[in-house]
Amino acid sequence: MHAQTGAGDGHVPERTPTPQTWVRLQDGQEIIGRLHRRWQSSDGSWYYEVSITLWAHAVVHGRDVAEPADITFSAPASHVSPVPGASYKGVPVRRHPAVIARARTGRKPPVMPQPGRAEAGWPQVREDGSDRWSVQHLRYAYDSTAPRPVVVHHSSCFAAKGPAELSTAQAVEALRRPGAKACDMCGADRLLAR
Questions:
Q1: pTM attached to this predicted model
Q2: Cα angle vertex 23, ends 18, 26, to 5°?
Q3: What is the CB neighbour count within 10 angstroms for residue 98?
Q4: Cis-peptide into 123, omega within 30 deg
Q5: N or C: which terminus of the chain carries fewer CB neighbours within 10 A?
Q6: Which is it for the CA torsion 112, 117, 118, 121, positive or negative?
């Protein structure tokens, strides 16, 4: 019988490996980061959770200093590539339960809306007034004198943040306020043409 070693018997358990990996940032820069885990979203897309070390401000004994700080983020798999010679064995992998269920049953994943779908008639706004809309309040400078910027989303929009509590008439009214704009992903701009 094999005896397992662990923290309870004075041995330090092995840490999950965090091998180096190349990460391409949104502006095209390529940097080396550390891979923490791979995970799959509900639509089947893969993401890599990586960290990079940047400088951060800290106050130590009343003195301002700059010290290294890890920043962790998720990058799409298309923007992460292996470092030659690095071993990725043991890096945690998490598949989304919905993807596993679809694989077992053979069902197709839901179609995610893409930019430009608004021209194709998405979302289908019903004329009976039963559609729901949400307002996303964007960040702005604390000393700004301009109206707070907001974005109006259809309830089915994947970019929506917050509950969809507005009726169609309320959403049209919200879009007419200063600082408001319609989401260009879900075609909420079609509300102004009503």
A1: 0.48
A2: 145
A3: 16
A4: yes
A5: N
A6: negative
